[in-house]
Amino acid sequence: MSCQTTPLGSSCLDLWREKNDRLVRQAKVAQNSGLTLRRQQLAQNALEGLRGLLHSLQGLPAAVPVLPLELTVTCNFIILRASLAQGFTEDQAQDIQRGLERVLETQEQLGPRLEQGLKELWDSVLHASILLPELLSALHRLAGLQAALWLSADRLGDLALLLETLNGSQNGASEDLLLLLKTWSPPVEELDAPLTLQDAQGLKDVLLTAFAYRQGNLDRVYTALGSCHRKMGNPQRALLYLVAALKEGSAWGPPLLEASRLYQQLGDTTAELESLELLVEALNVPCSSKASQFVIEVELLLPPPDPASPLHCGTQSQAKHVLASRCLQTGRAEDAAEHYLDLLALLLDSSEPRFSLPRSRPGPCMPELFLEAAVALIQAGRAQDALTVCEELLSRTSSLLPKMSRLWEDARKGTKELPYCPLWVSATHLLQGQAWVQLGAQKMAVSEFSRCLELLFHAIPEDKGQGAASNCEQGCKSDVALQQLRAAALISRGLEWVASGQDTKALQDFLLAVQMCPGMYICMTSAMDREAHGKGGVTGIVSLPLYLESYLSWIHPSDCEALLEEFQTSLPESCDL
């Protein structure tokens, strides 16, 4: 017979407890599995099992004999869910509230208390627990989770009141939260208690570490001081503080990233890139040497640094991109190519098979990483590898092109974001053309440049591009970038016409490029200047995507000076046509 249809007895409790213990063991097996996909699948299955078990328990009237197990299942469910999500949500607060209400149901105290908040519920439950000593261990475990949730949300006042109640003191004598945490003494878990993913004492240790870290962490302080001195033009003092930060703590990411910025400011490219390489290694350590545990960890309780803060060093893949892009910008093409290939392998290991439109976030989107990788490979003389990268990008984006007409219309009306796919695909054909130039296949190069131009002039019509491009926040951000891409393709094809002796066709392409983008010569010079000095931008010049900026640097003004003089005499004639 089903436990839901029989009086509560030891057989039902035994079955429920066995299921809880089995699911906890399954989560711990997942925790120790070396295969990422297997870990996630096992953990997700355990989570769904705990959800179902909790639903069964809470479908029955609340009963004191069952509540220790029910609260234990609640805690295990919250811990595993927060761990998998890498953070707390409102759902966890509701799970805690439901557990507290179940305790009060057994005391027939719930009626008028439904309108109470969590603070008032905790006060009522902890006072009622005096009459329910068998619930004490489970309630302290649940209180530990409540404390973790409030600490992560920076609700320190509520946390202090909870700890005062747990410690049996409500006179407000201590405002020292660290002292209140130290004073909290969770009851010792019974040896025959149901299995838990994390006991109250483990939660207390995490809370103590997280709160002490939030209160004052010297390596963060030293890093912030180093950043301030760098911005104030005191590089030597900045370096001293960054060295102190590295000596003080184990969080090496922020000071290493700040050191790379300092060395870039000083023009020491070798030291800058060494710092970035160390940063990539530092961010890789947790991934390789310590699999994430399915428990509440210190990191979940710390507020993430603002992305603009010097204390934010990002992920390993973000650091790898900074290193790759700086190698590309400073002319270290071979190193850049290898770093980009490593980065793509890292990201594609768990990526979706199709790309989505970019969101508002710092850094380039995946298609732009492919384009930057192709640029680095071409610059490193690895044209065949560049073609392979371009083909991979085309296989992931070309299927979206038939949908572009409607998306452009929506973008023109301002109802949706500007679609990026035609820009990515046309840029891919541009780079393929340059790769074929490097391989000496002139006909293939001209074909790719022509395909690029066809997409730019037909998939992105002029009247629609002008209205929509101004809303673009990532990739080709503005009309300027779109014009530069068109002009780059025209000049590239024109140079191939010159090489094959077809001067008339070359002149037509060059004239069209200059008419479309009169500032092309200035832009090429600026791109060369940025590459020569390793800078990210030039005052007064619209920022371009790195792949396009790098490409423009290859179109040397010295190659076009004589042609530009001819343009000046030919341009008035073309305007009369």
Beta content comes to: under 5%
What share of the residues lie within helices? 55-70%
N-to-C span: 92 Å
Count the E strands: 0
GO biological process, one term: interstrand cross-link repair
Protein name: FA complementation group G
InterPro entries: FANCG (IPR039684), TPR-like_helical_dom_sf (IPR011990), TPR_rpt (IPR019734)
Organism: Callithrix jacchus (White-tufted-ear marmoset)
Protein described:
With 577 residues, the chain is mainly α. The chain is 69% helix and 0% strand. The chain contains 26 helices and no strands. α16 (366-379) runs parallel beside α25 and α17 runs antiparallel to α19. The N and C termini lie far apart (92 Å). Mean pLDDT is 79; it is low at 286-290, 351-361, 463-476, 524-528 and 530-541. This is FA complementation group G. InterPro entries: FANCG, TPR-like_helical_dom_sf, TPR_rpt. One of its GO terms (biological process) is interstrand cross-link repair.
Chain-wise SSE layout:
Layout: H1 10-31, H2 36-58, H3 67-85, H4 90-106, H5 118-128, H6 136-152, H7 156-166, H8 177-183, H9 200-215, H10 218-231, H11 235-248, H12 253-266, H13 269-289, H14 316-329, H15 333-348, H16 366-379, H17 383-397, H18 404-413, H19 421-439, H20 442-459, H21 462-468, H22 479-499, H23 503-516, H24 520-533, H25 546-554, H26 557-575
Helix pairs in contact: 1-2, 1-3, 2-3, 3-4, 3-6, 4-5, 5-7, 6-7, 6-9, 8-9, 10-11, 10-12, 11-12, 12-13, 13-14, 14-15, 15-16, 16-17, 16-19, 16-25, 17-19, 18-21, 19-20, 19-22, 20-22, 22-23, 23-26, 24-25
